[in-house]
Amino acid sequence: MTFDDDPTSLQPVESAISPNGSRSLSFDPGAPLLEVEHLSVEFPSDDGPVHAVDDVSFTVAANEVLGIVGESGSGKTVTSMAILGLLPKRARVRGAVRFRGVDLIGRKEKEMQAIRGARIAMIFQDALASLNPVFKVGDQIGEAISVHRKLPDRAVRDRVVELLDLVGIPQPRQRADQYPHEYSGGMRQRAMIAMSIANDPDILIADEPTTALDVTIQAQVLEVLERIQERTDSSILLITHDLGVVAGVADRVMVMYAGRQAELGSVDEIFYDSRHPYTLGLLASLPRLDRGGARSQRLHRIKGQPPSLIFVPPGCPFHPRCPAAEVPGRCNTERPAFREIGADHRSACHFAEDLDREQLLAPEPATS
Amino acid sequence: MLTYITRRVLYSIPVIFVASFLLFAFVRATFDPTAHLRASRTAAEAIKSERKRLNLDKPTVVQYSDWLKKFVRGDWGTSERTHERVFAMIRRSLWVTTQLIFWGVLVSALLAIAMGVYSAVRQYSALDYTLTGLSFVALAMPPFWFGLIAIQFLSADLKNVFHLQEPLFYSIGLHKPGVTGLNVDYLRHLALPVMTLTVQIVAGWGRYQRAAMLDVMSADYVRTARAKGVPRRRVIFKHALRNALIPLVTVMALDIGVLFGGLIITETIFSIPGMGRLFFDSLLRGDATVLVSWTVVTALFIVLFNLLADVAYGWLDPRIRFS
């Protein structure tokens, strides 16, 4: 088997996923790429179940970049691990994750193995910890290929060099023989990206791919991701806590809070017409150079701490920290529905339509 | 890697000098090679001439340097107990002990790795709890007790219960008189002492391997391997085990070095003429010439296996190898 010189036309994986045919699932090419419906994940703990993800639904269309934003513990990573079936056994997963019409929840390990890395691939946050320290980078990328298709070593090797070249690693042939600790931080993350796109997957889940990197390197890695996405037509699920990253790359944005969805909409809707106080709080807390007088103003902050996922506040989980909350009232008694408030724009706020954006976005006056 | 090994070898040299001098001085200070002459009628005269012959009248440092020169040439003196050449005695004992250590370590390492991997992968399963419990029992049993129990139950009782002419497992030596080589007789002799040795070391190593494996199984790179679609078995035995072996191999190397001088009880119980027996017999008779060489040889083994531990660590971990 040979590879085309043009990296945009990578070999399709369909034929190679199941050499023996026994572990293949029959996908419907006409069905939506990824549909997550009412996904809930609970972890048992001594203090009661931890509601890591609570009733989350969204879709990812082909060739789309969906940004998932939220602070630590908001359920972003658990959602992505649930999609790949990588959660520990003790996790209780409910709902559906349909890939091309096939529900992946509760699938056999063998069936999931054929999907992981081939149809849905993942890029992790800490590339140094995520690469095996005792194997050469090239061999680790090669393994991602060889577990999914039978290829001669020579072809795997050529493909690895091609992939390293594609993500912008200089001297890819020599670099393939080096160990992860010999790479710089940015190069490691590029190698992770090369590994994830090795089989031309339909979906790339990038879990905080730039968090551990310097700002300049972050921009380079994002640029690589964008280029890859344009060339390979894959969809990207970009998980981050950085709204700046999302603004530049994503088509749509989902904001999560305490394991639930707060808001979902196009990038423009989220940034310019947000209809959730939590999203507005996040936006207001971004340091902005264009708003002048930065020194006279303190950065906006959202008061309080994110809630415990064992004892989630009743009603809207954000109400104790929400400047627009009506307490006592609907906000602390009635769980807000994640409802449609515009074409493909959803918000989980009782007062989504009536929010005073100017007030919520107003910077805090300097107090000292 | 070569620089790394060279550096480690160079570090070992002063350690050997200091250790051998201290051992020499301690043996000289505690054992009098002329003690057996005290009972004779011309004791004073005899002791004086013997002291002169053995250079005991010179300062310790001079004695040490003379001894060292001879030691390096292989002239380790003559035993006061058996009047045999010490070099030949230690070489013979060392070979016997090496066989015991080889089999004991082989069995223990395989068992410990299997136990550790299983216990980590099936953490909190019934067998994990059982293995944990057995490990603590094994750690709590002194080898002299376990050795005697093994002889009673597995050698004597087994023979009586089945009305055998000879015991299935022997409890004396490594061969029947006149038999040599790697054969069934050898294995029947080895079984109980190797079992006693294994019980001493497998529990610790197994616990160690379990901890290392648990640590590695939750590492990010194991998750990466799974996210690539690597089958679970291969994730465990390739990605995880390869990393979890690094600390175990280091600990094993250090432990093996100690074993060369540390099998005194096991060898005594099973009448195996190894290093432990040689030490015990020489100690009882105050055989200073043997004791000096014996202690230095065991110290050399500890230094050697410390060195091997470092080399193995570098060999297994590219982060060490290339820095």
How many helices of chain A does DSSP assign?
A: 13
Tell me the count of domains of chain B. 1
The CATH architecture of the largest domain in chain A: 3-Layer(aba) Sandwich
Largest interface (CB < 8 Å): A-B, 30 and 23 residues
| The top level CATH class name of the largest domain in chain A | Alpha Beta
**CATH topological fold name of the largest domain in chain A:** Rossmann fold
CATH architecture of chain B: Orthogonal Bundle
Strand content of chain B: under 5%
Secondary structure class of chain B reads mainly alpha
Radius of gyration of chain B: 24 Å
User: What does the average pLDDT of chain B come to?
Assistant: 91
Distance between the termini of chain B: 8 Å
- Percent of residues in β-strands of chain A: 15-25%
Q: Figure out the total of helices of chain B.
A: 13
Helical content of chain B stands at over 70%
- List the secondary-structure elements of chain A in sequence, H or E: HEEEHEEHEHHHHHEHEHEEHHEEH
Overall structural domain count of chain A: 2
Count of DSSP E strands of chain B? 0
Shape of chain B: flat
Question: Could you name the key traits of this structure?
Answer:
heterodimer; A: 368 residues; alpha/beta; Rossmann fold; 2 domains; eight-stranded mixed sheet; four-stranded antiparallel sheet; 13 helices; 12 strands; 29% helix; disordered N terminus; B: 323 residues; mainly alpha; MetI-like fold
Describe the structure in your own words.
- The complex is a heterodimer of chains A (368) and B (323).
- Chain A has 368 residues and is an alpha/beta fold.
- Helix content of chain A is 29%, strand content 19%.
- Chain A folds into two domains: 30-250, P-loop containing nucleotide triphosphate hydrolases (Rossmann fold, 3-Layer(aba) Sandwich); 276-287 and 296-361, no CATH class.
- Chain A contains 13 helices and twelve strands.
- Chain A is globular.
- Chain A starts with 13 loop residues before the first helix and ends in a 7-residue tail after the last helix.
- With 323 residues, chain B is mainly α.
- Classes of the chains: A alpha/beta (368), B mainly alpha (323).
- At the A-B interface, helix 3 of A face helix 8 and helix 9 of B.
